[in-house]
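The pair is quoted verbatim as follows:
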Amino acid sequence: MAVWDDPDVDLLYEINGLAQSAPTWADRTMEYVGEYGIVIALVVLGLCAWWRVTRRADSREEAVVGFTGLVWTPLAAAAALLVNIPIRGFVERPRPFVEHKGLEVLVKGKDDFSFVSDHSTLAMALAVGIFMVHRRYGLVGILLAVAAGLSRVYMGVHYPTDVIGGLALGTAVTLLLAPAAIWLLTPVVAAIANTARVGALVWAGPGRSGGGSTAAQTSEGADGADGGSGHRDGSDVEPQRRRRGQRDDRDLAA
C-alpha cells in the first residue's frame, strides 16, 4: 500500500488525471456542468420543492413554514459566499495549477485564491436549504453539491480540501443562521400568504378557498331547506282546500 506524502495533492492529481485521459467532449461537458449545470439543477430542485409546498401543504401555517425555508435558501447561499471573502483573504492559498505543474486546467482565468471553493459553498448552502424544506429533494441536492465539488478538482482549479471546506462552510452558515433568519422572515411570508393577489405563491392548496365554498354550500342548503318547507306547506294547504270544496258541493247538492 502506497504512503501518500500529501494526500491533498495526491488526490488532486488522481482526480485531475481523469481529465487528461478523457475525450475532449467529456471535458467540455464537465466544464459546463461544473461551472453552471449543477447550480441550475439546484435551482430547479428548489422550484420543485416550492411547487410541492404550495400545492401539497395541508394548512396555510404549514405552507408558510416551508416557503420561509425556501426564501432563506438563496439568502443563506449569499451569506455563505460573503463569509468566504475574509476566509480567502486570510488563508491566501494559491490555485493548485500555480504551484503544481502537469495539471489539466479546464477553466482559464481563475486567478483568485483557492480556499475555500465558492462553487462548493454555494451548492451545499442551496442543497441544505432545500433539505430543510423537503428531505428527498434535499438529499438529491446534497449529492449534486458533492458532485460540484469533485468537478472543481477534476477541472484542476481546486484542491480537495478546498472543496471539503466549501461544503462545510455552506452547511454551517445555512444551519447556524437559520433560526434567526426564519424568525425574521416568517411574519413577512405570513403577511404575503394572507394577501389575495400573491398569496397563492405561498399556499395554493385545496383548502385555500374552502371557506367560501363551504359558505356557499351552507347557503344553498339553507335555500333548499326553505324551498322544501315551502313545498310541504303548499301541499298541506291544497288538500284542505279540496276537502272544503267537497263539503261545499255536498251541502249544495243536499
